[in-house]
Each structure stands twice: as structure tokens, then as C-alpha cells.
Amino acid sequence: xxxxxxxxxxxxxxxxxxxxxxxxxxxxxxxxxxxxxxxxxxxxxxxxxxxxxxxxxxxxxxxxxxxxxxxxxxxxxxxxxxxxxxxxxxxxxxxxxxxxxxxxxxxxxxxxxxxxxxxxxxxxxxxxxxxxxxxxxxxxxxxxxxxxxxxxxxxxxxxxxxxxxxxxxxxxxxxxxxxxxxxxxxxxxxxxxxxxxxxxxxxxxxxxxxxxxxxxxxxxxxxxxxxxxxxxxxxxxxxxxxxxxxxxxxxxxxxxxxxxxxxxxxxxxxxxxxxxxxxxxxxxxxxxxxxxxx
Length: 294
Hints:
- By secondary structure, this protein is mainly alpha-helical.
- α6 packs antiparallel against α12.
- It is elongated and about 65 Å long.
- A 3-stranded antiparallel sheet has the order 1-3-2.
- The longest helix is centred in the middle third of the chain and has 23 residues, at 150-172.
- A hairpin with a 3-residue loop joins β2 and β3 (124-127).
- 52% of the residues lie in helices and 3% in strands.
- The chain has 12 helices and 3 strands; from the N terminus they run ααβααββαααααααα.
């Protein structure tokens, strides 16, 4: 077994970064040095739930005040708590969340880069409509997956994976990189061990690594650019959408078949095994139809 496989097998679940419902409500702003404390919040009016947040998935970007404020405001925009064309006044945000002007300014810049807000002279910063959002941004994928649009987000991610991964598996079979194929085999071994130990966190980690490696092995840089989307999809799936969502012997067997097909250079078998892995479960109402085999 490789060092990488052994490390992932022995990693503690506590290191996963997963948090439970409600934990985002604990903001240690008051205890943070250098924060400009101001008066009481003044966000009044019809939006009575402006501080409400939902779950977040593992691996949230940013751990400090800046990252938490981006997370909070992003969730509020995506959930609809801050509707389109809603003005965002930095001073009011600073009061509401008890953070400095610098933190607010940098957070709004991040949200602007994601297409969620726009800042214009003499107009200020306003929330942009959904059509302007960068829907392939991993943070926005995460926020949508745990917001009111969760069903649409998971369906769209599943459909996108149907487009990306079978093709990646077919292309990967034509690349005889033994080092990457060995790592794919390691991931299957890790998943097998995790399944036997009922360790869902380690299984998920190895699963995400498996799919990322497979896309890299395809040798297509444009596909590789989309590997982050697949990773985000695996993190936030949260329901029986594909065969990757629940650690099972069947899922493990499909992963192993993909590795075997790649080792044999059998592009058709690799693509077929990936399609079977991505086949939806019968209890899902809106399914992704499997492409016809040629």
C-alpha cells in the first residue's frame, strides 16, 4: 500500500472540516483583535431573517472573519434573504456583523468576483440577479446545494457529471500513466477499507480524490478545469443522486471496474463502468437518463 493510501486510511474524522447545523451562528467577532466595534445593527424593515444561515459543506474556503463574512453574505444572497437589486451598505454590514470596514470591503470584492454583487459609482453595491452569478464557482455550488434551490442544484450537478465523467473515463483509458493508475487503485483500496470500517468520511475523501485523478488522467485541460465542479458535487450531493453518494459494495465494485478497464486500456469498458456508477437510484423522482450504449 502506498504512503498516500495509508495516510488517508488513518486520518481522523475530526480533521474533515465538517460542521453540524447551526454552527455558523457562532461568530467570535467580539473577541477578535483589531475589529472596529460600532453601534447596534440597523438592518431593519421587512427582512427579519437577515442573520439566518444554513448548513455548509466540508472544506469551506476561509476560516477568519473575512471568510466567514463571505460565507454568511453569500448564503444570504443565494437563499434569497438578500434579493436581487438589494442595496448592500458597507457601514450597515459592519454594524450587523461587528466587523471592520476593511473586512466588509474585501468580502464584497470576493462576492463581486463571483458575480453575486456589483459595485458602481453613485449607485453603490447591489445584489445581482441569478443570471449573472458564476454558477460553476465551488462556493456558489455549495450555497445553492444547501439553500432553497437544493433540488435543482443537485439535479444540475448530476446532469453535468453525466456529461463530464464518462468522457473522462474513455479518454483516460488511452493514457498509460502508471503512477496515476496506481493512485486510483490506492483510492479503491482506501474505500474498501473505509466501507468495512463504516467510515463514511474517509470513503468520501477517497472517492473525491478518485474522480479528480480520473479527470486529470484524461489529458484534456478543459476537462481538468472542471474537476473542481465534480469535487464540489461530491461534497454537497447530500442525497441519493448517483452511485457515489452512499458507500456500498456496488459503488465500490464500479470504481474497481473502472480501474481495471483503465489498466487494460479498454476505453469502452471504462466509459460503461462510469455510466453505471453514475446511474441514479430508483427512488429519485427526477432522474438523469443514461446515454445509449453504441
